[in-house]
Amino acid sequence: MNSLRRRLILLLVASIVGVVGLATAAVISVRGGGPPPELTVPWVAQQMELVVRLLPGPIPDVLRVKLSDHAAGGKVDRPETAMLNDILRRRGLDVLAVVSDKADEPGQLASVRLPDNRWAIMEVPHITPPRREWLVLAGWISLIVAGATAVSVYFTAVLIRPLEMLEAAVSKIGSDGMLAAVPEVGSAEVKATAHALNQLSSRLKTAMESRMRLVAAAGHDLRTPMTRMRLRAEFLDDERDKWLHDLDELDRIADSAIRLVREEVNQDAAEPLDLRKMVGDIEAEMVSLGHAVSIGHLDAVSVQAGALGLRRALRNLIVNAATHGKACRIDLAVAGSRAVLTISDHGPGIPPELLNKAFEPFFRVDPGRLQSIPGAGLGLAIAKEIIERYGGTVTLENRKGGGLEQTVVFEAV
């Protein structure tokens, strides 16, 4: 019941059915008891007067009077009985009249004692409810519910169309953070919502492109002064190696920044990839470069991703674990419909309060302590960008026995 559509439909249906139901109940309460006594009793008195006047002659069948030796049985209705006797006396008839309820069905009977001591019995006008009245009422209510539901569904769809458009636009946000263009058609409210979304998308795109141009330009422009500084450092005698080391660090930062921008702009096409084979190839490459990387259990599984991008992302994660964690182990398992890649190392891990910042650009756990380790702090940021682009997730968690565990999850194909 958390859906706004369902709640609106139920609210409208309940409101319509409630109003019509109350109106129906009011009509039934007014009409259910038949005509008031002020209308029926004078009519009965008039018919009885005709019967008395016609005696001792025959009584026409049109009067629908039954003659009996005793009055009709049933509970006596005293107010109507008094009213009938009063009307008969005012008409000059000195007779006794009794109005009583029928014993086995709704309605009333009027009994008048005639001068010859017989009783004339006549039915008091009464509106009889239709046969199978509950079935008729159920059909009436069902028709109301069906009509109210149809009307509610239509108007609810109209009311929440802007919200659905917003939800659809947000769900179509690409890996580059851009919103898909929304058609500006429909009612004034829908057009306004679509126009606002398109404006937001345009501004986001402009901001993203401006940021990427800024980073790329800064990284590129750093190359020229760094080259001049490197040439000058070659002629230094004192602290030459320190100068060259710092220049190498600046060069790596500029290269990493440019690569991060390229990952956001250049996206290779996704295709089915044998993840076990890719992990084996990366492990062999890392070992040849001198990294302490080992393979654990590898299940055969394929995922949908770009070959170059995914290889670069996994390589960054493995290098990060092998460098900062001294050594790492890679495991690949199939869990239901997902491929789960785990990279476990034996390093100091990351303080829990900093785990959620590890994927931020230029992140270092302790820059002063890790200056000797090369890198610009963009490896995890680039890996996260690539993995999430292809629908995967990457998380970090400290191991109980020490070290860090990097978990990459993809949908298997």
UniProtKB/TrEMBL annotation:
It is found in: Cell membrane. One of its GO terms (cellular component) is plasma membrane. It comes from the Bacteria. Its EC number is 2.7.13.3. The keyword Hydrolase does not apply. The keyword Cell membrane applies. The chain crosses the membrane at residues 134-160. Residues 157-209 form the HAMP domain. Keywords: ATP-binding, Cell membrane, Kinase, Membrane, Nucleotide-binding, Phosphoprotein, Transferase, Transmembrane, Transmembrane helix. This is histidine kinase. It comes from Mesorhizobium kowhaii.
